[in-house]
Structure formats: structure tokens, C-alpha cells
Amino acid sequence: MARQKRPPDRAYARLDRSERNRIHRGLERGESARSIAADLGRSPSTVCSEVQRHRYVTSPREHRGQPAPSDEALAQSCPGLAKWPRCCNGCAKRRGYGCSRRPRVYYDPRAAQLQADAELSLSRRGIDADEEEAARQIAAIRDGLARGLSPEQMVASGAVTVSVSTVYRWAERGYAGMSNMDLRRKVGYRKRRRSAPERATSHSPRRSHAAFLALGDECAGAWEMDTVEGRRGDRACLLTLLHRPSRLQLLLPMPSKEAGGPEAWLRRLSSALGPGAARRVFALVLTDNGAEFSDERALAAAIGERPGETRLFYCDPGRADQKGGCEKNHVEVRKVFPKGRGGVSLEGVGEADCAAAMSHVNSSPRPSLGGLCPAAAFRAMLGADADALLDALGVEQLPYAEVLMSPEAVNRARRERGEAPLA
């Protein structure tokens, strides 16, 4: 029966494991290189070079696994190794264990595949770009890391044109002195300590999270409200409001986490916008069960809620994930106001400091917005109302080159005002 040949024109030219297994079987049966090559649809030289490159010593034991010596050295050891297949596969003496010649060398398809894969991986290491382009990409990455930007934000901005996974890989391999220590989220997590559950805030059933979800598509345009604490011992905190669709983050200083602070800020923002604009901007607000949000009537009145309607809602107790956008965006806030060892105190943080922080946080590009920054997305969605709110808070939209996601973003503004840096 005629042997079926494989089609010779294939896009993938490397030998695969099945082909190496076929070469091994042919060697064991004593077939010629031409016969094996014809069955594979390869050239005889491909088969010969494959066997010659991937012969390994099996005896003596102290040299086991090493590549075979040169053909000249093998020919002196055994004249049979001077011709095809140049290895001990298929040798009749080897089958009867009657050969005392050393070294013995064999072609092994598994070892050949591992070696070929290692060579391919090594060939792909490094940077696939000329020296000038590689230097530009690395400089842009190091600049972004130094300013506290994530690889996703750098790529979304267009300043870095390689993929996000490539940025992580270059940092892990230590190119240009980078390391995983430069990636804050990759090395910054600690095991979470379990704290006692907080007492649930009493609120009307119509303000439950289930009632919020029942609004359907309206939920997508809501604000998520929470607070951010400072260092241990601080009484001061920040009121945070995240606009879900645009990812805009508001940071508002409060002297303590007590009822009265959030509604005071909401009334102030509503007054700056005017009644009509305040109702359009703060159409829905979702918050948690903290004590600072316990006065539901005052909060609802502050966002312009009218009799018979519900615009303020609460998450279920212990379900911070129900306002996960706010919780996730606190990672960006913590870059500017870090907590714990090496963090900053919020006791001296004022409105001007929060305005500087908001300008940087809301000017960093977001992959979820297609590379837009939250400030630009917020203005595109709400137009003049957005301009009025950002102007009232002193928030500027900064160019990418000026974005700084570290305490230096606030300290730089404080130095320009002649004030001491944050402690």
C-alpha cells in the first residue's frame, strides 16, 4: 500500500511532537532519512539535522543527558556512528545489550521537543523593536510608574504603545532597572483583618438595595457615596462620591465620620449648581450603612428629593460589593492619600488639597472609558452642569504628561501656595 504523504506547503514550519515521534519510530525500525522525510512531507536534510541536533548521551552515567559529542569523536568510538542515523537507535547490538562501546547516544523525541521549545522561547526574549523605539517605550513606562499610573492607564493614554501584558512582563524581567516593586497593586496587598460587623443603619424599606435594582437602567447613572479614612488616630476623613458612568471621583474633606458632614456637602454642591441642575446631576445616590449616613431625611433633602419620590438608596449590611465601583476607585485615591506606614494624615487636608487630588485622579486615562479620563467623560455626558460642578470644586482637567498619582500631586500645589507638605 502506497505511503500517504503530508501536504508540503504549511504555514507552521517547525517540527511538532507527533513528527518527532514519527522520526523516532523510523529510527527504531532502521528506516532511511529519505523514507522518513517522504512520510512527513519534509526534506531529508530536515530529518538529518533534527536527529543530529537532538542526540543525547545515555551512557556513561556521569554524562547522561548531555548533547552528543562531535561526529568525529563518535566515529572513533564506534564506526557505525559515522553514517546514518549517527545514533544508537535501531542498532542490533544495542537490542541484545552486547555493545560495550561508549558513549551511547540516542535520539529522544521528548527531549528534542523540550529543547526546541526552549530555543524558541529564548529567541523571543528581549524587545522586538530597534534601540531608539525600545528606549522610548521604556522611558514612557518608567515615567508612568514614577507618577503612580497603572500599566492599563499608560496604555490607554497612548503614551505607551505596547500591550498591558508586555508592560508587566518587562517589569518582571527587570528591563532598565524596573521590577515588580514598581507595580503598586502587584505588591501592595496584605491579608485583610476581620473586624466586628458594623451595626446596620436604620432606613426605610423603600431605600433598600433591592428597590434600587428595581429601577433598572436608571441605576447605571447613579452616584456611589462612601468615606475614606486617614491614618490610625485621625478623626478627619474624606467624603467620596463616584459617578458610575464616567468614573468621576469627588473628594470632599470632613472633620469627622459623624452624621451631618455628608448632608452639609450635598447641600453645598446643590446650592452651587442650582436646584434644577442639582436634580439632574445627583439623580440617584447609593451609599452604605455607616453612621455618617444614618440621617436619611437630611441626605434625601440635600439632593433635592421631593415628596413621593425616592432618590437615595442604601446597600445591604456588609455588602460593600454592591457599590463596588466606589470601592475599586478608592485604589486611585489611596495613591494620593496613602494609608498606614508611610501614609499621610487627613487632619490637615483642606478643600484646596482635595481639588488638587481630584484634578489628578480625574485626569488619568481609564481603559474602561476607551482611554478617556473621567473629567472628559463627565463633561461629555452632562455638559454645562458638569462644568459648573467641577468649577465649583476647583477641579481642572490636566494633560497626561502632568498627571501625578502620588502625595506629590497635593504637596506640589501646597508648595505653590506657600504651605508645608502633608505630614
From TrEMBL:
Keyword Transit peptide attached: no
Comp. bias intervals (Basic and acidic residues): 1-32
Keywords: DNA recombination
InterPro entries attached to this UniProt entry: Integrase_cat-core, IS30-like_HTH, RNaseH-like_sf, Transposase-Integrase, Transposase_IS30-like
Transmembrane segments: none
PANTHER family in alphabetical order: TRANSPOSASE, TRANSPOSASE INSI FOR INSERTION SEQUENCE ELEMENT IS30A-RELATED
Protein name, entry field: IS30 family transposase
Record organism: Kribbibacterium absianum
